[in-house]
Design goal:
alpha+beta; Alpha-Beta Plaits; 5-stranded antiparallel β-sheet; 5 strands; 20% strand; Transposase_17; Transposase
Length: 148
């Protein structure tokens, strides 16, 4: 199914008020976010989307993003597309690049009522530790959660 990520979303719909765990990766898994400024662009882009969604938790890893988000208005696809589009333009501008920043598509998981949001957020923000990038969350700047 390589190269056919839009087929994964065929027949799926998103609901306003539902919470989703979304993961999306950089083009060719390029570790763009070793550059702290590029990571901050993604964070700013999340904050820009407040009419579409509320960010509950996130971590910006060197080559991908985990985003726990509550959908406010529109579709999840629209929110992710807006985030990726806006951040790509700004990252390209910062780096003097042109071209793709993000791989097409994204993976999402709709959170069920019985799932523990704080546990999911904890899992998200612990990614840099599990990846061996840092020993403590305090050492990694590109994460946040509303529970902290």
């Amino acid at each position: 199914m390589k190269g056919n990520s839009s087929a994964l979303r065929k027949g799926r719909f998103s609901e306003s008020g539902r919470i989703y765990l979304v993961t999306f990766v950089t083009h060719q898994r390029t570790p763009i976010f070793h550059d702290f400024g590029c990571g901050r662009i993604v964070v700013s882009s999340m904050r820009f989307l407040t009419t579409l969604s509320d960010t509950l938790a996130y971590v910006i890893m060197p080559d991908h993003v985990h985003w726990l988000v509550e959908l406010r208005d529109g579709s999840l696809e629209r929110s992710v597309h807006s985030l990726k589009s806006f951040s790509a333009k700004e990252i390209n501008k910062k780096l003097g690049w042109s071209g793709h920043i993000w791989q097409k598509g994204f993976h999402d998981h709709a959170i069920r009522d019985e799932e523990d949001l704080t546990e999911i957020a904890r899992y998200i923000v612990m990614n840099p530790i599990r990846a061996g990038l840092v020993k403590s969350c305090r050492e990694y700047a590109l994460w946040d959660a509303v529970w902290v």
